[in-house]
Known about the structure:
Elements: H1 4-7, H2 15-19, E1 23-27, H3 31-43, E2 47-51, H4 75-86, E3 91-95, H5 101-107, E4 113-116, H6 121-134, E5 140-143, E6 156-160, E7 163-167, H7 179-197
Parallel strand pairs: 1-2, 1-4, 2-3, 4-5, 5-7
Antiparallel strand pairs: 6-7
Amino acid sequence: MPSRGDIFERNVPGTAAMLATRCVGIAGCGGLGSNAAVSLVRAGVGRLVLVDHDVVEPSNLNRQHFFQTDVGLTKVKALAGHLLAINPEVRLDLHDAKLDPAGLVVVFQDVDLLVEAFDTAESKRWLIDAWCRTWPDRPMICGNGLSGLGRTEDLVVTRVGNVHFCGDARTDLSMGLCSARVAIVANMQANVAIELLLGRMP
């Protein structure tokens, strides 16, 4: 089995060792959360706290990091298998549950930052509000506009306090979802998370 050194040999020098000590929470393991989680594990993040209450369905496979063999499995279990296949040493806390404000405090109490990966605007709103009230000094990274096709130049990162919004801040799910655009926003979230965990973002 490859060693950690082999896995992270081509990473930016010094970053994997630093990220190995950090913990990221991911609220939602669909298009944003599953793809962001994969990038964070490939970067060397040592621990992830994954929360989702759904199972993998065929309609998820156009944009989420799942496969035909995952259909019917809970998303946290299926995603955990893929993450461990990348780095067997990553530590995973799995919560197959629907998140609510009370659960937020318990589940994410030890994380350094949170990646928000919910589907609906209503869910995003309460999560942002609850997070900022509970941990005003901890960063949160949200997706806010990833539907449709193309228009890559519209995808930006906007910071409001300790909340970082990735996307175009405009499109909604009615436009449909393209794997490429969803993955771009998910990886923008992962990229911001890595910068924050390394202390490289002003």
